[in-house]
Design a protein that fits this description.
Blueprint lengths: L1 H24 L7 H17 L23 E3 L9 E2 L2 H19 L14 E7 L2 E8 L2 E7 L5 E3 L2 H4 L15 E8 L2 H13 L8 H9 L4 H6 L3 E10 L7 H11 L8 E3 L2 H14 L7 E8 L2 H7 L9 E5 L3 E14 L4 E13 L2 E7 L3 H7 L2 E2 L2 E6 L6 E5 L9 E2 L13 E2 L7 E3 L5 H12 L11 H9 L6 H4 L4 H5 L6 H13 L2 E2 L1 H7 L7 H11 L2 H6 L2 H5 L6 H10 L3 H11 L3 E2 H4 L1 E2 L2 E2 L6 E5 L7 H10 L3 E3 L8 E4 L5 H9 L2 E4 H8 L1
Helix pairs in contact: 1-2, 17-18
Length: 675
Amino acid sequence: MKNEVKEKIKKLREAINHYRYLYHVLDRQEISDEALDSLKYELTNLEARYPELVTPDSPTQRVAGRPLDKFEKVKHVVPQWSFNDAFTEEDIRAFDIRVKRFLTDELGRGTLRQTRNVQIPYTCELKIDGFKIVLTYENGLLKTAATRGDGVYGEDVTANIRTIEAVPLKLEKPVNIIAEGEIWMGRKDFDKLNSLQVKKGLPTFANPRNVAAGTIRQLDSKIVADRKLQAFIYDLPQASFNVPDSQFLELKKLQELGFKVNKNYRFCKNIDEVIDYWKEWGKKNEREDCWIDGVVLKVDSRKFQSILGYTGKAPRWAIAFKFRAKQATTKLLDIKIQVGRTGKLTPVAVLDSVLLAGSTVSRATLHNEDEIGRLDARIGDTVIIEKAGDVIPSVVSVVKDLRTGGERKFVFPNVCPVCGSKAVRLAGEADHKCANPNCFAKERRKLYYFASKHAFDIDGLGPKVIDLLADNDLVSTPADFFKLGKAEIKNLPMMGEKSAENLIKSLNDRRKISLARFIISMGIPQVGEETAYDVAKRFRTIEKIQKAAVEDLLSVNGIGEVIAESVYTWFREKQNEKVVNELLEQVKILLEENKVSGTLLSLAGKSFVFTGTMKNLEREEAKNMVRENGGESSDTVSSKTTYLVVGENPGSKYEKAKRLGVNILREEQFKELLG
């Protein structure tokens, strides 16, 4: 009898999974919803009678039994990158030229003789406006699902992702993979959800993207199951088998494994075909049930992808080509001046709230005094505002035909609206700046920036909490954050025991920081993330950066005279020197602390390049190990390269290294070198 039940359960699961795959992946329906529900009901009853036969991949196990207490942090095996954006044809052609130049330098001019004339094939996919998810499968079974987080750590949301029917609990083959995709809510389900909100007398949601993100972070998976979320999978960064050397074929492979892939991807022979694809979908994207905000183009060849590699925050082989900016008209109610961390005075348009690209907009930037003059923008005008991607909305023009005569011209202030000090505009510059080095607004903005996601990334330390701490004289410099005690925090308004404990834990988690993030957190004028990573890579320690001359800084790839002078000057100002030294008393920079076999910075002065597929080591993980131990990691083999570390199927870098006489290490030898 038991064997008969086991066989019945097996057949029910196979049938339910088959119909699930047809409906949720292939958009085909062979039996009615009622018939499918009947099969599920029969399976549920059998498993209730024989609980010992229940398995994790059973269709009945999609919804967890009880809500979670919290989400656990999980470290990504594969670092999660974000894409750079392009908004115009000029942007995307410039990207194509950068790709060709880089490949020409790497492969040699014999392979790509004429950079501008050679055609690079791309695979284009629709950019779904949803919530990124990272799926890990072992032996074909879903093990974990994690949010992107900061790219290094995400949150384990497996219980919630299991409720999404488009995500298979079991793959078509028993393989080990990591897959990446987008969780989204369809327009129809979004409208139904908002209708239900109205009936309940609750606020409606702004857009499907926000709903998807908010739903995935629900602690109760039953709520997630009710929201009818969907998923598209688009990337296979790691697998226990050989992934096709084509982005286009990789998407086909994902479909073979049982994933739902957006069917509108296209192979493009050159950048002209990419632009045609972008124009086509720019006109018809709103016909789809999912929200689409652009096109992602990826160099089709995975071999070329490997050669192109990554910058500090994004792949060189892919870019998001956003659709043309959305526009709307509204009333300009007022113009306020906002003071930034560098003292820059930025005019901000206060608007009559208007819905634009799925979010309510009540403010937009006017950039500077010259822009206000160019627009001839006046308080009371009807203006056209524009939002491109996630960029802050801006005022692009004034509808002067609608003027009544009651509009008022705006006079740009000659004093800082926060501290009352003189606001100066230097010759040749468009911006006004507060002349007071101790301006309250500047110092407060610096603290916001220090704790922000791209800098120290201190969880729970947003502007409101910083304001609360600063207003109560608990912090005035970055180092002060790390001197805080639980007792003084918990007695503040809106805080309490638990909030204080969480904040102290977040601060302690950031007492060790990478050199690049440390540089970013200082808010040095002209120094963005890319530059910070390049400087950290070149100098390796904060002491060397502090001592670097302008000529030394100019030797860093991508740094020109303006940035070099800015970094040099910043580190020689007494006030900045004090900020750095006080902070170093509270935190440790990882590059200084890492030791191998008792030797500080054992790889100092050595340059590494990696090629091929590593068996037990991720490429980015290996690069970080080199950096953390004082070495340099490059994507290009040259006469300055100390070691080329090779995995399986090494590319052209291997041949080039042999020609140049570069030392070649296997993965095991590289590990031995690190001890």
